[in-house]
Specification:
CATH architecture: Orthogonal Bundle
Pfam families: PBP_GOBP
Strand content: under 5%
Helix content: 55-70%
Number of strands: 2
Shape: globular
CATH superfamily: Pheromone/general odorant binding protein domain
Number of domains: 1
Keywords: Signal
GO molecular function: odorant binding
CATH class: Mainly Alpha
Protein name: General odorant-binding protein 83a-like
CATH topology: Recoverin, domain 1
């Protein structure tokens, strides 16, 4: 179950080099995954007061609601145990869970963005910066639930 939850979080927050269905969601993020993640996304929405509209805007490249989006991302990453002791995304989890054809692109982009935005006291700000960095590098594969 922990592995499935970690996979769900990763798929929700980040990116795979696949076409989108309904110009909205990567093909591999099924309705079942969306339903499985719903309690976690709802919890983080409640905790951070982020709205569906703010998340939708981020998915179209509008990052004007930075702080709240960063806090929402960080909340999900924490709930899914995707962060190590240095507050970096555990790429080994991603590597173990994703199909081979997606690993290189995703891990390289994550490592690049984490290097550009090293850990700092404001975890929400860093999470936001990593999300925005990822979108700038690979907007066609970015997706946040």
């Amino acid at each position: 179950m922990d592995r499935l939850v970690s996979l769900t979080t990763f798929l929700i927050l980040l990116i795979v080099n696949t076409p989108l269905i309904d110009a909205d969601r990567p093909v591999f993020i099924s309705n079942a995954i969306v339903q499985l993640a719903k309690p976690l996304t709802e919890s983080c929405k409640s905790t951070t007061n982020v709205t569906d509209e703010q998340i939708r805007k981020v998915n179209t490249g509008n990052f004007e609601d930075g702080k709240i989006i960063g806090c929402y991302s960080h909340c999900l990453w924490q709930k899914m145990d995707l962060l190590d002791e240095n507050d970096n995304i555990k790429t080994e989890i991603i590597e173990a869970l994703l199909p081979d054809e997606f690993k290189g692109n995703i891990i390289q982009t994550l490592l690049t963005c984490q290097k550009r935005h090293p850990p700092k006291d404001d975890k929400c700000d860093r999470s936001f910066s990593i999300q925005k960095c990822y979108y700038e590098i690979s907007p066609q594969t970015f997706y946040m639930l």
